[in-house]
Amino acid sequence: MDEYSTSEVTAVAPLLAAFDAAAAMGHITRAAEYLGVPQSSLSRRLRALEQALGVELFQPAGRRVALTAAGRELHARTTGLIRALDDAVNVVRSQADPEAGLVRFGFPLTLGPVSIPSVLAEFHSAAPRIRLHLVQAHGEALAEQIRDGRLDLAVMIPAPADLPAIVLGRQRIQLYVAAEHRLAGRDRVDLAELAGEPFVANPPAYHLRRQLDSWCADAGFVPRVVFEITEFDTLRALVAQGLGVALLPAPELPHPGLVGVPVTGTHDRTIGLVSGRHRPTPAVERLREFLAGRVGR
């Protein structure tokens, strides 16, 4: 067998998974949690890698870390290799026991308190030896993790056009107002009636915010967003306090002081089960088929 071009590769290779996680997340604590190791162990691996290469790979950025120029170069050249190696190990390991394995599963911030846990509880009863690593994030973050292999499957609303997806259903969007709001007793409201209302909404990067802007534009106005927030429970709480109105999916748990009013026309989003383009393990395929089989139930 030909020798490696540099003797350091045998020392560097075991450290690259730690580097890849820290580089992708920009946060040492979260990377350690993702890898399931103590933060001190992860920090030692990163220092060992820097010593082996003779360059600094990270620099402080507030409470996070950022890559140096050398770190960006190394990450660009190795991240695909780490994903391919992770995929290969998962596939080979799963072939030894198709009833076990790990599935990295993501779901959106608008789902979770009821629907996702109940579905996963059913799956766990059917496949108790399959482990699930769960990630909850907004749509673009989930899509990025599916594309680069950090997630195997994700429920997304809606599914991105560039990834394989199965339609699971549709998420209805309606107007939510405080119980004392002038529209709280209405059976239905036209979107154009909201032209003078203050809105509480997600930041512009969120799909639901882009939908809000698009729907309001079609109704002839630009929404006056007075509060922007990423967290949906807090968003609903702000609406319940009378600080604005919002276009949202129904909450999975009752929210005191919040009233939903249907909006004239079609305002909904497709719920998709998204998978990556890498070869799925039997465990991943089992969860995918389980979730797909629930369509129409």
TrEMBL record:
<feature type="domain" description="HTH lysR-type">
    <location>
        <begin position="15"/>
        <end position="68"/>
    </location>
</feature>
<keyword id="KW-0805">Transcription regulation</keyword>
<comment type="similarity">
    <text>Belongs to the LysR transcriptional regulatory family.</text>
</comment>
<dbReference type="InterPro" id="IPR036388">
    <property type="entry name" value="WH-like_DNA-bd_sf"/>
</dbReference>
<dbReference type="GO" id="GO:0003700">
    <property type="term" value="F:DNA-binding transcription factor activity"/>
</dbReference>
<keyword id="KW-0804">Transcription</keyword>
<dbReference type="InterPro" id="IPR000847">
    <property type="entry name" value="LysR_HTH_N"/>
</dbReference>
<dbReference type="GO" id="GO:0003677">
    <property type="term" value="F:DNA binding"/>
</dbReference>
<protein>
    <submittedName>
        <fullName>LysR family transcriptional regulator</fullName>
    </submittedName>
</protein>
<keyword id="KW-0238">DNA-binding</keyword>
<dbReference type="InterPro" id="IPR036390">
    <property type="entry name" value="WH_DNA-bd_sf"/>
</dbReference>
<dbReference type="GO" id="GO:0032993">
    <property type="term" value="C:protein-DNA complex"/>
</dbReference>
<dbReference type="Pfam" id="PF03466">
    <property type="entry name" value="LysR_substrate"/>
</dbReference>
<keyword id="KW-0010">Activator</keyword>
<dbReference type="InterPro" id="IPR005119">
    <property type="entry name" value="LysR_subst-bd"/>
</dbReference>
<dbReference type="Pfam" id="PF00126">
    <property type="entry name" value="HTH_1"/>
</dbReference>
